[in-house]
Structure formats: structure tokens, C-alpha cells
Amino acid sequence: MANEDKVLEALLKEERAFPPPAYFVEEALVKDTSLYEEAKKDREAFWARQAENIDWFQKWDKVLDTSNAPFFKWFVNGKLNVSYNCIDRHLKTWRRTKAAIVWEGEPGDDRVLTYQDLYREVTKCANVLKELGVRRGDRVTIYLPMIPELPIAMLACARIGAPHSVVFGGFSSESLRDRINDCQAKLVITADGGWRRGGIVPLKKNCDDALAECPSVEKVLVVKRTCQDVNIVQGRDFWWHEMMARAPIGCEPEHMDAEDMLYILYTSGTTGKPKGVVHTTGGYLVGVSATHRMIFDIKDDDIYWCTADIGWVTGHSYIVYGPLANGCTTVMYEGSPDWPERDRFWAIVEKYRVNILYTAPTAIRAFMKWGTEWPARRDLSSLRLLGTVGEPINPEAWMWYYKYIGNERCPIVDTWWQTETGMILISPLPGVTTLKPGSATIPFPGVEAAVVDNTGKDVPLGSGGYLVLKSPWPAMLRTIYGDPDRYVAQYWSRFENMYFTGDGARWDEDGYFWIMGRVDDVINVSGHRLGTMEIESALVDHPAVAEAAVIGKAHEVKGQAVSAFVTLKEGIQGTPQLIEELKAHVVRKIGALARPEDIFFTAELPKTRSGKIMRRLLRDIAEGRVLGDTTTLADPAVVAKIKEQYESQE
Ligand code: 6R9
């Protein structure tokens, strides 16, 4: 039995079950299964009811338009503004003075913005954007650290109807350049730098390098954060604080159509080129606010903290848009969990009395490795609910989180979703669902997920296959920016009338979903999605490299680590220095998140007769498994030789 299957066997034998604790049910927003039944009876009516929680300038005519599937439309002809929903409507209530964003910088500085403060900052920023020539429909690229100016800039874009494209601060200048060019951004918002483990991430410098090859960009708005000297190009670059000081407060929100684009977010796929996932206004806001409220059981006195970076979809939906639409207090932290010490997260929970904590399995595994003394030092008694996202959580990590962070008192919501889905689709409701460690449990009301075989037929309960979605949901992506054909090919062609997630899954006898990870050429390193082809192209770009194959190799903390098999050009020696040089090259091309953990030089790569590299076999080698089926190989001897060399080097 292959290793993965053994792990799976163990998972499916996982018999521990945790019904919602009585104290939690008593206070829970959702206490029974009636929502599931309501949604099953009439899915569209269920979503329409959720949409009532949003303020519309004009109500929709039709909940769902399927006439041009898979280009679905939600809340047809509805008019609204996301920034209005996240800010203005709360000003009419006592929430005007409630903390909207509680922010902590890595060096220990902090800032609290009430909803009134957020209104002031966002409307001023919207006026700055207009002054810099941004109009409704123009794209704005945002390349900022985790500072309050990041959500302020996003909301300002939403206010004037300019779609934003947030690029994670860990991406290199080349990655930034490609993302700017793909969406033809007119303005870039960046900072001098961001803090990371006491060092400065040189964002402005990266931005300058990128802009040498970005003809669409007219102006750059620069936030001062780290205060080192940076290059300022006269006429192109403008300081945020100078522009904001002059800008008036107050800016009418644009009346946007429900289907107008809210943002583009780039994510890795199966090709070398990241794709721009397009999210729109109405359905997205309905989806993220409903899931945020019910899955995290949001009450008005909660202090909610999602530890993701806003550069990823989790931050978009569950730090910014979902929580603010719900009038919640959302915590933001700029830096690393081990700075200055390994108890930083727990210090933040203690300091702000965080009630709800949403983090990633990779972080939990790192905490496990660091030991229980770090959380034990701090008062975590404010916590009442925990969440995870980004990758499958192994039952040991789940149990550790449950015991040492939640003190066996807090339910854990394991939430499955994707950049493309925009909102959580499979997750427990903490006052209703019995939890099983390692399972994301069941689809959210109004979501139709299934596990199917090769032909698209449901597999029987108790077995595995491909995870699909059988009907549209409001926050779904609408297309790939500039490439509708790729949208259809990537998601709607593998199975008829179903959205293909790219994940493998099983459902157990109770109908619980157990997500097994990607079945395509996407790997998941510390919860970050990377395309193997992207990293291969970066390696092949180096003059010494002839060919490269990249796989995700099982890793204790990261889930998967990047492992590369490289063949060098004739006459070039594979030295340890070259390994370091190639790693640095990948970091330069993509960013530190893609740095290979190990690079192995080989004379040849295993290929099929049609010339396709068989990464599956390389993964068997790297993870020390018996080789899978090798009959389709052009030359089976190649793989045997690589295996022998690899094992002698380990
Ligand atoms: C939100 C986000 C999506 C991929 C997805 C799957 C994996 C996410 C998961 C999970 C098991 C969970 N994934 N959540 N796997 N259990 N709770 O992470 O989006 O970066 O696009 O990644 O992450 O493989 O397909 P994204």
C-alpha cells in the first residue's frame, strides 16, 4: 500500500467525534439544521434570503441567471457598493465607534480604527485615487505589507469602482511585473518596505524594478512604513501621507452592478502562467458575509483574528470583506509568528482578548514543533472558536490545536475552499456539526459538493474520487481575467455541468468530506499554492539548466516542500554552489515562498513515450515509496537509476 493510502486508512478509521459543546450551542447563532433543509428545498431562495443582509441601492430582478453557463450571473441588475456595505451602513448604528480594524505591527506598534475612522481614511484615499487619475473600471495593483493602508486602499478602490489586484508582498519584482502587465494596472500602491523578522522587505525597490517593464502604470502611491531612503521618481511617485493630508473627507460610493468586477487575484494553476481570478460585487459580498457570520458564529462583542496575509484570498474574504460587511472587529498582524519570540500569536490573543482565531495547519504544525510552553505562557481563556484553512489538517495537529490552544473547550471549524470559490464551501457550523478531526465535514447550506469518479458519477459513500461542485454559488469566480476560454477549459470541461476543483477527496459513511489534496500539477507549500510548471520555468531560465521537474515532497511542517530534479547543460558540473545559485534564482524569479527545499541533479528525467515528464514517479522516489506504474515510460531504466542515486545521496 502506498504511504498516502496508509495515512488515509488511518484517517478514515479516525473515530473521535466532537459534538458541539452545550455551552456553545446555547449561545450559537445557528443551532439546528433548518438552514440546510431550507437551502435544499430552494437554493436560490436561501441565497436571496442571505442577500437581504446586504444594503442594495437597487434590488435584483433575478437571483441566478444560468442562460450563458458557465458564465453565471447572480443578483441580476442589483446595484450596491462594497465599501458602503463595509463602512457607511454601520455608521448609522452604535457601531460607528466600534473598532473595525485592530492592527499590530511587527515591531510592537499598534493602531485601532473605528468604523468612523475607517470611513474617513477610505473616503480620503478614494479622493486621492481620483486625483491620481483613477476612474471607475481602471485596475489598481496593490503591493503592500500587512498595514492598515492595505484594507483602506482596497476599500477605496471598491468605493470608486476600480478593481484592485493585491499582490502578496513576498512576491518578487518579476512576479509583480507579470501581474501588473496582465491586468494593465494604471496605478500601483506600495510602501517603502514592510517588517519581517526584524528585517525590511524592500517593496519600493521591487516595485521600481518591476515598473521598468510596465508601460500601463502612470502613477505610484507610496506609503511610508519602514522609513529607509527610497528612490522617488518625480511626477510618477507620490507619498501617501502627503496626498492624504490634502484630501477631503467624504466620497460618494459608486453604484456598482452586482456583476461588476470587485477584484482580480492571481493564483497558480497547472501552467507556467498564474491566472487572474475575477470576483464580482454582489454575489461575492453575499457569500463571504453569510459564511463569515455563520461559520464563525459572529456576535457583536467578538474580537476576530484571521492570521492570513491579505495578499491571499483568505485575507480578502475573511480579514477584509466578510468581517467588515458584518460590522465585526477584525485583527490584523503585520509580521512573523516567531518574532521576537515564538509566543507572538498567543501574546496577541492575550493582549486583545481574541475570541475567534482562524489560522493554517502549517502554522499549527510549527507551533507543535516549538512546544506547548509557548502558548502556556499566555492567557488564552478569551478564545471560544478556532478555525483552519489552506490545506488538509492532520488529526494530530487538530488534536493539538484543540487541546493546547482551545483548552478542549473551543470547536474547530476546518474550512475548505479556494481562491476561485471566493468563500468557504465545506465547513462545520460550530453550533450544529459534530466534528471529526481531519475532516472539513459537510457543505455549507446552499452548496452542492460531491465526490465523483472519472466519468463524473458520484462514488459510493466510503470511497474516494474527485471533488466537484454541482451547482453555482454566489461568490464563485466569474472568469479568468482576459482569458474566458481558460476559465471554461480549466474548471468546466473535465466533467459536464460541474465545476472541477482540482482536489481529490473521499466521503465517509456519514457523508463527511475528507480532502486529500491536489490531483493536478499544483502543490501546496505552507498553505500557499504554487504551480510546479512555474518553478520549472524559473529553473530552466537559469543558463546552466537544461531541464527541470518539480514536485511537492511531504514535509513535516510545510505540508509539502518544493523538491526539484534538474538536468544540467552539457559540460556543467552540479556543485553545491550551483544548488545555492539555483535556489536564489527561483527566489529572484518568483519569491521566497517558491525556494526549493532540495535540488537533485540527474542526467535524465523519467518521461513517457510522448515526452511528458512523470512527476508522480519522482514523488515516489523523493518520498521513499515503491515506484508506481512505470509501463508508460520511454525508458524504465532511467527512473531506476535516479532512484538509486537519490537514495545513495539521502
Ligand atoms: C482558501 C485557500 C486552495 C487549495 C484547495 C485545497 C487546499 C484549502 C483546505 C484545503 C484541505 C482544507 N485547501 N483549504 N485542503 N482542507 N480546509 O487556501 O485558497 O490558496 O486557492 O488554495 O488549498 O487543495 O484546492 P487557495
UniProtKB/TrEMBL annotation:
Residues 34-86 form the Acetyl-coenzyme A synthetase N-terminal domain. Keywords: Acetylation, ATP-binding, Ligase, Magnesium, Metal-binding, Nucleotide-binding. Its cofactor is Mg(2+). CoA binds at residues 196-199, 314, 526. It catalyses: acetate + ATP + CoA = acetyl-CoA + AMP + diphosphate. ATP binds at residues 390-392, 414-419, 503, 518, 529. PROSITE patterns: AMP_BINDING. Residues 534-612 form the AMP-binding enzyme C-terminal domain. One of its GO terms (molecular function) is acetate-CoA ligase activity. It holds the Pfam family AMP-binding_C. The modification N6-acetyllysine is found at residue 612. Coiled coil: none annotated. Catalyzes the conversion of acetate into acetyl-CoA (AcCoA), an essential intermediate at the junction of anabolic and catabolic pathways. AcsA undergoes a two-step reaction. In the first half reaction, AcsA combines acetate with ATP to form acetyl-adenylate (AcAMP) intermediate. In the second half reaction, it can then transfer the acetyl group from AcAMP to the sulfhydryl group of CoA, forming the product AcCoA. This is Acetyl-coenzyme A synthetase. It comes from Desulfofundulus luciae. The lineage of its organism: Bacteria, Bacillati, Bacillota, Clostridia, Eubacteriales. The gene is acsA.
